[in-house]
Write a structure and sequence with these properties.
With 313 residues, the chain is α/β, with parallel strands linked by helices. 38% of the residues lie in helices and 21% in strands. The chain folds into two domains: 66 residues, Arc Repressor Mutant, subunit A, CATH 1.10.10.10; 218 residues, D-Maltodextrin-Binding Protein, domain 2 (3-Layer(aba) Sandwich). The protein is elongated and about 70 Å long.
């Protein structure tokens, strides 16, 4: 392709963002009430103007090329900044705000999401929050289904996680180090303890989050995943795991950060092990975060700091 002489239009950027989100030119056209040939022509003209192939077309729809993924990050920033300018100087309402987050099962992730939505000031918005499996978090961010993901790594899984991220064009950015805690029901016999040991847990069911087809120890959401236990139950969501804590006196191992508002019947007790969990966010190495994603991470840091946890960086 030869680089076009004309500039990029704001409309083209908005079209491109929707095409990338929908994975389909025709679906984006329907969403924006634009004729499909008009949308298709706009995408071809955009590629001509930037002198790069941004979309990979197939019978199943479109995916972003590597350069298309990088371009998307800048397009989001430009469109968002224009919306903020129009809101401040022209009095126009803020347009629909978009952000996708995929994460392991942490209440601070939800707390921060609630704060972001309440404080956002947008009349309309469209957000997604997926609490999901470790492999799927990485895949969501790789394919841009989510702009960022939140997960943990430690000495045991670091090499495997970091290699998978590199191979996917992603990078890990540390947020904080967590001392492992067990989460248990307030009715559990261990709930009054200041600390617990692994020996204390022997008679209680261990609750872990199911990792599906990628059920490797390295993708486990909990540390000490290779530790044998006579009683183990795998679950797929936080509501179920909390019900089993109450009904069966089960436990799971996590960060120690738990919301009294979201999880009032659950307590966190420090686990006496020489381990640390490094919690961080992942994103594309070559794509800058949107303003909305940066605002969300600001809320994450504020929630975590409110629990007295020291932030990294």
């Amino acid at each position: 392709m030869t680089r076009g002489s004309s500039g990029i239009t704001l409309q083209q950027l908005r079209y491109f963002i929707e095409v990338a989100a929908e994975g389909s030119i025709s679906a984006a056209a329907d969403l924006l009430y634009v004729a499909q040939p008009t949308m298709s022509a706009a995408m071809k003209d955009l590629e001509t103007r930037v002198g790069r192939a941004l979309l990979r077309r197939s019978a199943r729809g479109v995916t972003l090329t590597d350069e298309g993924a990088e371009f998307l990050g800048y397009a989001r920033q430009v469109v968002e900044q224009v919306a903020l300018l129009e809101h401040r100087y022209l009095g126009q309402p803020l347009s629909r705000r978009l952000l996708g987050v995929s994460a392991q099962h942490y209440s601070f992730v939800v707390d921060a999401f609630v704060r972001m939505v309440k404080d956002g000031g947008a009349d309309e918005y469209e957000f997604s929050l997926r609490e999901t499996r470790t492999w799927d978090i990485i895949e969501d961010v790789r394919t841009l289904r989510s702009e960022l993901g939140i997960l943990y790594r430690n000495d045991f899984n670091r090499k495997v996680i970091d290699k998978l991220l590199r191979d996917s064009g992603l990078a890990f950015h540390p947020l904080f180090l967590a001392v492992p805690h067990i989460f248990i029901s307030r009715k559990n016999p261990l709930a009054s303890r200041d600390r617990v040991t692994l020996a204390d847990l022997a008679e209680f069911p261990r609750l872990t989050f199911d990792q599906g087809a990628n059920n490797s120890f390295y993708f486990a959401e909990e540390i000490l995943s290779t530790m044998s236990t006579s009683r183990e139950i795998r679950v797929s969501d936080r509501a179920t795991i909390f019900n089993l804590m109450s009904g069966l006196d089960g436990y799971t191992i996590s960060t120690g950060i738990i919301s009294d508002d979201l999880d009032p019947e659950i307590v966190a007790i420090p686990l006496d092990v020489d381990e640390r969990m490094e919690i961080g966010w992942i994103g594309h190495s070559s794509i800058p975060l949107s303003e909305q994603a940066q605002r969300y991470l600001t809320e994450v840091r504020a929630v975590v700091a409110g629990f007295g946890v020291a932030l990294i960086g």
